[in-house]
Amino acid sequence: MSVTRTSRPARLGQYLALLAYLVFLAFPFLWLVSTAFKPARELGSLHPTWIPEDPTLDNFRQAFDEQPLLRAAGNSLLAALAAALIAVLVATPMAYAIARHRSRLSTAATGWVVVSQAFPFVLVIIPLFLVLKNLHLINSLAGLVMVYVVWALPFALWMLVGYVRAVPAELEEAAAVDGAGRLRVLVSVTAPLLTPGIVATALFAFITAWNEFFFALVLLKTPEKQTLPVVLTHFLGAEGAADLGPLAAAAFLATLPSLVIFAIIQKRITGGMLAGAVKS
Amino acid sequence: MRAPRLAAAAAALALMLTGCTAGGDDGTAGTVRLRFQSLAWQKESVDANKQLVAEWNAAHPDIQVDYVQGSWDSVHDQLLTSFEGGEAPDVIHDASDDLADFAYGGYLADLRGLLPERLRADIPARSWETTTFGDGIYGVPFLQEPRVIMANKKILESSGVRIPTPEQPWTWTEFRRVTKDLTTAMGKGKHAIAWPLKEPVSVSLNLGLSAGGQLFHRGPDGRVTIRFTDADSVVPGTVHDQVNTDGSASRSTLGTGGSDTLPGFFGGKYAMVPLGFSYRQQITQQAPKGFEWIVLPAPAGPEGLAQGVSPQTLSIAEDSPHKKEAARFLDFLLQPANMVRLARGDWMLPTGTTALADPSLHTAKDGWATGAAVAAHLRSAPAQSVRGYPEWKDKVATPAFQEFYSGAIDVGELRKRLVKDGNRVLSRYQR
């Protein structure tokens, strides 16, 4: 395999482009953090600064005083973790079946699953609401988790099919030739190679559920059940008016779990990917 | 080893979730439980609502109200889904311009036989018009918000221009002249006025009433058609000329929301900003120390200070099994003294005549007196009960007004689009 050498100016350009992209990605988050620590009078400044001139924790105090953020975060965490876990448990065997047993049916099934992602929320929400009502799952985190799983499943499946296809079938065949049974092949050969894909898919499902607003708004009726994105909108008024300081503080806290979880598992994703790369 | 652990975790999670399923609606036999979904969002407003609910609950052990905080964001879709699913709150807080579809759809109770005469008589007919659809009344209008001009006191007073009052407001012609002179006096890079016109339709239509603009005309057969007369062009024409001819209005704020203009206002970049009355709260919170501001009435035309508003409303769901109890709660919530508490919490004005007369709403501080004086001139927003208005607004009027204000099209093209394209949209809703 040959490696193409890049000239120094080209490499510099690549780094600059990467840096610009990182700045672009980081800007909203850094601005959010900055806003969260600014007193109200600085929020109305014509010349805003990155570093608050008179940093304060008042926005955090106010956010916690006004809204049950911890309870809402707990609800979100429970719903998102459950949705991620169940989505992965359901999607993995489905993805394996579609990837390994190619037929017109599996191709059509994959196509339909992906197309189903295009349905807008508003189109499905009323029938979904009626179904959940008949199952007595309105105002229940269990009902919400079911919706999140169904909503995350198509994309999770699509992702996992790609990961399964990246695992050479020859490895499984070799293991079978060596005498391993079907289950042993799946557990000892396929599953370890699929781990990074499964983790990435779970992360996707988690973040989708963690950020979801509309289903939670519609399906959860009592304040005790509401999730974090719903509670965050309580800092917003009509026509875009907002209680900016507490909103920024609460939104900053809402981003932390995603960041922490990603930080914990990103090593596993990249590590797993590299491990997969060696085999091919 | 991992698979059994995963399965155990999944099972535990499923058990936890099953345990999270909603319990029964009613804890005590014989006690009526009402769900009140409020859209209050500012701290003082939420506090006022919660306190009133607590007072009601303490005094009425047989009718208990559960306070549920809703959100202005997506409230229409959320309510629609709840109505369709038969799970709507008993008492519903919304804005009158959002009620037409729900009222015509049969989701809201007709309040005519439910409300006490005291409440009916205390709120002026022009406010009831905002919640009257067909023959029925589908909400109690209780808070309203005129558009006023927030002005930098020092800049205005030092310039020598006449400061308008509700008794002697600026005319639209005088307003244009004042902004032109003021911009010259303020110097380069500064503007007398900043119009935040991210949502230009309601501003143009509601303020247009002062000049006699109406735009929507209902015929004897009940059909609504759009006509754009000279009176309809006064307000849009003034704004257009301030931006494109005089340079007295900032071009950069045309696409922004109200809050976005505040830093420039505080920094002396703009002398005046037309905003909703409740923005005073943000100004008191965010204005730098020493910043002096006053509240001016919007300019007047042949119709005086008239302007359209879409009041905040309280409705009762048609599916509620406890409509009478819900109406009793509404009566309590909207007692004059309570209406004042709600109005002060939201920095708005009450619709009730008795509440509006409360001395605390007529103080000069924070411009309450100016708003209270304007309140007598508030009318139902022109498009209030027009079916198809949301589509007309989004697909036709918003882009047309935005292009007109930026100078991309002239008034002839604006008229053509609003009328020709607009009537085509409305006709689909009136077949």
TrEMBL record, chain A:
<feature type="transmembrane region" description="Helical">
    <location>
        <begin position="244"/>
        <end position="265"/>
    </location>
</feature>
<feature type="transmembrane region" description="Helical">
    <location>
        <begin position="111"/>
        <end position="132"/>
    </location>
</feature>
<keyword id="KW-0472">Membrane</keyword>
<feature type="transmembrane region" description="Helical">
    <location>
        <begin position="185"/>
        <end position="210"/>
    </location>
</feature>
<dbReference type="InterPro" id="IPR050901">
    <property type="entry name" value="BP-dep_ABC_trans_perm"/>
</dbReference>
<protein>
    <submittedName>
        <fullName>Carbohydrate ABC transporter permease</fullName>
    </submittedName>
</protein>
<feature type="transmembrane region" description="Helical">
    <location>
        <begin position="12"/>
        <end position="33"/>
    </location>
</feature>
<feature type="transmembrane region" description="Helical">
    <location>
        <begin position="138"/>
        <end position="164"/>
    </location>
</feature>
<keyword id="KW-0812">Transmembrane</keyword>
<dbReference type="InterPro" id="IPR035906">
    <property type="entry name" value="MetI-like_sf"/>
</dbReference>
<dbReference type="InterPro" id="IPR000515">
    <property type="entry name" value="MetI-like"/>
</dbReference>
<keyword id="KW-1003">Cell membrane</keyword>
<feature type="domain" description="ABC transmembrane type-1">
    <location>
        <begin position="73"/>
        <end position="265"/>
    </location>
</feature>
<keyword id="KW-0813">Transport</keyword>
<keyword id="KW-1133">Transmembrane helix</keyword>
<feature type="transmembrane region" description="Helical">
    <location>
        <begin position="77"/>
        <end position="99"/>
    </location>
</feature>
<comment type="similarity">
    <text>Belongs to the binding-protein-dependent transport system permease family.</text>
</comment>
<dbReference type="Pfam" id="PF00528">
    <property type="entry name" value="BPD_transp_1"/>
</dbReference>
From TrEMBL, chain B:
<dbReference type="InterPro" id="IPR050490">
    <property type="entry name" value="Bact_solute-bd_prot1"/>
</dbReference>
<dbReference type="Pfam" id="PF01547">
    <property type="entry name" value="SBP_bac_1"/>
</dbReference>
<dbReference type="InterPro" id="IPR006059">
    <property type="entry name" value="SBP"/>
</dbReference>
<protein>
    <submittedName>
        <fullName>Extracellular solute-binding protein</fullName>
    </submittedName>
</protein>
<feature type="compositionally biased region" description="Polar residues">
    <location>
        <begin position="241"/>
        <end position="254"/>
    </location>
</feature>
<feature type="signal peptide">
    <location>
        <begin position="1"/>
        <end position="24"/>
    </location>
</feature>
<keyword id="KW-0732">Signal</keyword>
<feature type="region of interest" description="Disordered">
    <location>
        <begin position="239"/>
        <end position="258"/>
    </location>
</feature>
